[in-house]
Structures are given as C-alpha cells and as structure tokens.
C-alpha cells in the first residue's frame, strides 16, 4: 500500500504491506529535488518504483540500514545502473548482504521482508549532499541503530530524521536500541534551527523544537525513575511493572523483541542483562 502527499517541495511516500485489506506498520520515503531519502520495505518496492514513474532520482540516501528503509534500493539500482546510494559507513555491509548481516525476526519478515542487496558509498559525518537547489548536511545520530544519520537543509530548515524521532511516549523498545544514545542524538538535532521535521514513520512537524524538547524531557525523566528504582534494589521485572504499565499487544506480535523489558534494560546497561 502506498500513499503520496506533497509538502512544499518534498514528495512523501507512506508505504506499508497490505494485510487483511489494511496497511500494517508504515514507513516513509521522501523525494526532494532528485534526492530519495530512504526507499521503504521490500514488500512495497515495486509500488514505490511505479509511483516514481518517469521521475529518476539522482541519488538515494539511507538514514539507516533497517529493512523498512532500504527495501527498494536494489530494484531501483537495477533499473537505474548509475543511481548513486549513500549511507553511514556502518550500513554498507548490511546493504551489500542484508540476509547474512541483518537476520530478521518473524514479524519483520512478515511486515517488511528481506531487502535485495544494494551497493552504496559512505556518507561521512558533516558531509554535504547537494542537489540542484538544496544542500543537505549528514549528521550522525546513533541510538535507534549504530548506523543512523539525519539530513539537515539549513536554508529551508528541513530536518529529515529517519527513525530517530517517533511521536508519543515510549513504554517499550526493540532489543538492541541504545536509549542514552537516542537521547544524545535527539539533543543534537533539537539544537538546530529546524523549521520542519520529516520523520521516517510519523507525521511531519512544523517548528519541532518544543516537541523535541518534550520528548527529551520525558525520556530523561523516565530514565531517572528507572535508575532510582534500580538503586532501591528493584529487579528489572519489578521496574517494568512499576513504570511501564500493562503488557502490550506489540510484545506478543514481535515475540518479545519489542518489549517494555528492553526499554528498562537499555537504561540500565549491560550490568542487568
């Protein structure tokens, strides 16, 4: 399933596999002045290619190597052999061999699927990606994944955040995320004079500074409560019960890969694993 909207000079593609007549677990790609930021998942690759039609992106930038952001890389590269792709250096081995480098849990295969291999060149920290009309700076923002980056266009104040920012207040986290790095990365982008924030799986935000500050404050306050309970001698499961509420449907769907327990463990670090 694919939905297309336009905001200023940016075309937004919301993408999801259709199951039981509905799109499930959406992800987003953006096209701006020939630059395609992320490519959705494997299950929607053909839809994205068809939606692009005669539009020929000159370049892809992947915000990170998760399967729901690189899924059409290979198909686009086969159709356009000269298409350049850029990503964080740590993402390149995953893009080249996603099946071996990034094993998928059953729910990830169901909702997003295995991406085709694709080639990419490293995008250094602070480097500029130039299009005919715009200049985007690459900012490394680890936490959601070690290879995560954001793109910032200072003249327009456009901030493309991939999956660094997701709306709402977390009660769970996927295994392997680093919550303290996420907070540090959010602080980095919150310091920018951003006018519009384009997330990888949430609605576009205008003047996002206040919402970013609120998100950071919530995550830090929650972390403080986790650490306080830990210092009082509470074990992980007791902290989960005290702070994270009732069991969540997503914990069942992901067989525990995305869970309240992983959020608490990420705050506590390796000592409690």
What features would you describe in this structure?
The chain has 273 residues and is an alpha/beta fold. The chain has a single domain, classed as Ribonuclease Z/Hydroxyacylglutathione hydrolase-like (Metallo-beta-lactamase, Chain A, 4-Layer Sandwich). Helix content is 32%, strand content 25%. The protein has ten helices and 15 strands. The strands form three sheets. It has a seven-stranded mixed sheet, with helices on one face. A six-stranded mixed sheet has the order 8-9-10-11-13-14, with no helix packed on it. Helix 8 (236-243) crosses helix 10. The longest helix is centred in the last third of the chain and has 23 residues, at 209-231. The model has no long low-confidence stretch (mean pLDDT 94).
Reported CATH architecture: 4-Layer Sandwich
Low-confidence parts lasting 5 or more residues at pLDDT below 50? none
Structural class by SSE content: alpha/beta
CATH class identity: Alpha Beta
Q: H/E series, N to C?
A: EEEEHEHEHHHEEEEEEHEEHHHEH
Taken as a percent bin, the fraction of beta residues is 15-25%
Question: Which sheet architecture does the biggest sheet show?
Answer: 7 strands, mixed
Give the strand line-up of the largest sheet.
1-2-3-4-5-6-7
Looking at CATH, which topology would you report?
Metallo-beta-lactamase, Chain A
What number of structural domains do the residues give? Answer: 1
Instruction: Kindly report the average pLDDT value.
Output: 94
- Report Rg: 19 Å
What is the CATH H-level superfamily?
Ribonuclease Z/Hydroxyacylglutathione hydrolase-like
